[in-house]
Fold 5-carboxymethyl-2-hydroxymuconate Delta-isomerase.
Amino acid sequence: MPHFSIEYSANLDSRVDMNALCALISDTILETGLFEVGAVRVRAFRAEAYSVADRLPENGFIDMSFRIGAGRSAEEKQRTGEAIFSAVGAYLAPLFTTPHFALSLEIREIDPDLSWKKNAIHPRLRGK
Ligand SMILES: O=C(O)C/C(=C\C=C(/O)C(=O)O)C(=O)O
């Protein structure tokens, strides 16, 4: 599966709808045309313990990690990252109006020789 994980500081709970953010990211991934719908998984993890920058209590972060299968070109991976970072940045624009928030994204490739997968969703969605 292409795995998209979000880690976020708990102080964003009241400021970001994480389910809506996951849906936005899923839609954006699929809009690239590079990933199958049955393969995409997006989830968010809340960090209860964290220390950000100068430790002001209002400091917060979202760090995003996208693990994808090997085989896509550098241009395709770049385009995917740009699309996701742009969509998420726009969604989170209110958080950038004060100097207390940091956003990051990394795309990594999964080693095909060191990964295993079994997916019962593909047969249901392929060909639709
Ligand atoms: O190759 C991978 O592990 C990731 C991937 C697709 C995975 C599936 O289709 C699956 O687990 O069913 C990808 O498109 O990057």
